[in-house]
Structure formats: structure tokens, C-alpha cells
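Async update (no meeting this week)

Hi team, since we skipped the sync, here's where things stand on the single-chain job. The sequence we agreed to prioritize is pasted below, unchanged from the tracker. I ran it this morning and attached the output directly underneath so nobody has to dig for it. Comments welcome in thread, and please keep replies under the output.
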Amino acid sequence: MSKDFEVDVVILTKSQAGPDAKAPAVYLNDKLLSEVKGIRDGKITVEELVDELSKDGVPRKKDRGSCSCCCG
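Output:
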């Protein structure tokens, strides 16, 4: 996936995320994609993440590498 999309990944500790944050969680901008004991129970597949990135209009790299995952 990192070969296909121009996206920065930021990993925060629970203390950095704030007192009400549940961990693990996955956000895309301000949209919650996955949260423990909630949406997708804290897990997200590559396919689901690629779908979300595509729907959100995240730019794709011009010279994408080839991979065997769903992003083709």
C-alpha cells in the first residue's frame, strides 16, 4: 500500500491521543475507521484501508510499485 498512496502515517501512544482515546484505533484525517471494541474491533484489512483511502481521494503515486495485494 505504501507503494501506491502518498500518505503520512502517524503513530500515537494512548497518552498522546488523549484520555478518552481507545487503542488501537485507525483514523483517516478526522474519520474513525477502526476502534477497539467498536468499529471493526480495532482491526482493518489492507483492502478496507485501500477502499477508504480511495474514497477519501488520497493521491496515488505516479510510479506505483507492483504488489500482489488488492490495490493492483
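Quick observations from my side:
The CA atoms of residues 2 and 8 lie 9 Å apart.
The chain has a mean pLDDT of 81.
Reply here if anything looks off.
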